[in-house]
Design a protein that fits this description.
The chain is α/β, with parallel strands linked by helices and about 400 residues long. Helix content is about 40%, strand content about 15%. It is built from 13 helices and 13 strands. The protein has helices spanning about 15-30, 45-60, 70-85, 100-110, 125-135, 155-160, 185-195, 250-265, 270-280, 285-305, 335-345, 370-385, 385-394, and strands spanning about 35, 95, 115-120, 140-145, 165-170, 200-205, 230-235, 245-250, 315, 320-325, 345-350, 350, 360-365. The strands form 3 sheets. A 7-stranded mixed sheet has the order 2-8-7-6-5-3-4, with helices on both faces. A 4-stranded antiparallel sheet has the order 9-10-13-12. α2 runs antiparallel to α9 and α11 packs across α12 (about 370-385).
């Protein structure tokens, strides 16, 4: 067999997709499964967005376009960030990509050299360390622990920063914990980045899914716009997962570098989806606000129910749409509990180690099912909890 490039062996997958595959297999066998494993909203884009993409295709908006994205969308992104996050961004600092993962990959390829070190959160999105390793760099985790309400410990981050550290990646609200980094934490990260001359990649894909307060981006802090890359897109806030549209916001010379990578890879994102995305950003039907309000109701219902299940403990998330549940007191491993819930209760969740070693005693559930399904999931979990209660009693 002819060899595959060694970088591929450094990549890992996402645990959610493995659980999803097994859940679908059980469904084919006639089992009832409540899907709480994928981070995919159960909403769909607002009607004006659907109308816009239909009209764009009908109008022949299906041609090659600028590698950086259509100018109107880049201008709309800049205006949207000013309106929703009070950020001063120029259209020239925006690059459109087919999905947030691609925007993230472009940013990482533009900034990271083989031999560099990259700081990333644990637990966190598994692609951060995976792609870091694929680029020949070293992924260095910093912990988000429950006793600190999953806020970053800046003393730990500073201690792990070396002469080889080039980038610090984080996302707030965090996947999987739902933690929104405090203003104090952001200020400390910014100070460290300035002192040690680090790039910041701020993954803000969940920035609009916030349950209280106003979102603060590290980009807005003094001196940070020149060393920060924001990753965002349309999958979560606008329920456009399958549309594959994301963007990066970065200093112009970084956008120039990313643009050259676009030219050498996918050429451009589809024009008709970009046209429709302008309509999404307008949000004339206030669909984002309505969706977040629904997630807030689901959060309150589901977290309260989880905390009534013996052996479960869950802090309410401040943003995103996940429940991060400590299952230590069940006396079982997270993998055992997840398998039991799926195979016997028909509830699909993810064992937390999929998000890093700090997640070994946790499960992640997505709040992407309607109220009645969340209530049914809680009832099923409550019933099957007798299995670990009996084991602990022995």
């Amino acid at each position: 067999m002819r060899r595959i490039a060694s970088r591929v062996s450094q990549l890992t997958g996402e645990g959610a997709l493995g659980v999803f595959s097994r859940a679908k297999e059980l469904e084919r066998q006639g089992r009832s499964i409540i899907h709480l494993e994928l981070g995919e909203p159960d909403f769909h884009p607002a009607a004006p967005v659907v109308d816009a993409v239909r009209d764009a295709v009908a109008a022949g908006r299906d041609r090659y376009v600028s590698t950086r994205g259509v100018p109107a969308l880049r201008e709309a992104v800049a205006g949207y960030l000013k309106r929703t996050r009070r950020l001063q961004v120029a259209p020239e600092e925006v690059l459109i990509a087919p999905g947030c993962k691609m925007a993230l990959a472009l940013a990482m390829m533009a900034l990271i050299e083989p031999g560099d070190e990259v700081l990333y959160p644990d637990p966190g999105f598994p692609i951060y360390p995976s792609f870091t390793r694929g680029l020949g760099a070293t992924a260095v985790p910093f912990g988000l622990v429950e006793k600190n309400k999953f806020q970053p410990d800046l003393s730990e981050i500073a201690a792990k920063t070396t002469a080889r550290t080039r980038v610090l990646i984080f996302n707030s609200p965090n996947n999987p914990t739902g933690t929104v980094f405090s203003e104090t934490a952001l200020a400390q990260v910014a100070e460290l980045a300035s002192k040690r001359d680090l790039w910041i990649i701020s993954d803000e894909i969940y920035a609009r899914i916030l349950f209280c307060g106003e979102y603060k981006s590290i980009w807005a802090l003094p001196g940070m716009a020149e060393r920060t890359v924001i990753i965002d897109g349309f999958s979560k806030s606008f329920a456009m997962t399958g549309w594959r549209l994301g963007y990066a916001v970065a200093p112009k010379h970084v956008v120039d570098a990313m643009d050259l990578l676009v030219l050498n890879t996918f050429t451009c994102a589809a024009e008709f989806t970009q046209v429709a995305a302008i309509e999404a950003l307008r949000d004339t039907t206030n669909s984002v606000e309505a969706m977040v309000d629904e997630y807030r109701k689901r959060r309150d219902l589901f977290i309260a129910g989880l905390n009534r299940i013996p052996g479960f403990r869950c802090l309410p998330p401040d943003g995103a749409f996940y429940a991060w549940v400590n299952i230590e007191d069940t006396g079982m491993s997270a993998e055992e509990v997840a398998k039991l819930l799926l195979e016997e209760a028909g509830v699909a969740g993810i064992a937390g180690a999929a998000f890093g070693p700090q997640g070994k005693d946790y499960l992640r559930f997505s709040l992407v099912s309607a109220h009645h399904l969340l209530e049914e999931a809680l009832e099923r979990m409550q019933r099957v909890s007798v299995r670990w209660r009996a084991a602990v009693a022995r």
